[in-house]
Design brief:
CATH topology: GMP Synthetase, Chain A, domain 3
Strand content: 15-25%
Strand order of the largest sheet: 1-2
CATH class: Alpha Beta
Number of domains: 1
Shape: elongated
Distance between the termini: 25 Å
Number of helices: 3
Length: 91
Amino acid sequence: MPPELFVLGLASCIGYYVLFYCEKNNISPDGLKVESDFEKSANPVRISKISVRFYLPGLTEQHRTGVMKAAESCLVHQSLIHKLEISITLC
């Protein structure tokens, strides 16, 4: 379903940025796991909450901070937290 694909797109983008951070910092990505879910609301019907959890065992505190910054800089995440302009046209 489209809402699931939307949420999975965000989760996979976050996972990609975390993986990139690992490669850049010579950290093994073994055990990297990304999970996501969402809640819906009415009036208007929409996705009202998205939760993305990722697991990467064995990180030092320094790298935990870096990984979180990488995850939060994901293009999809940044697009969602800032005002996004959407145009819908019937042609």
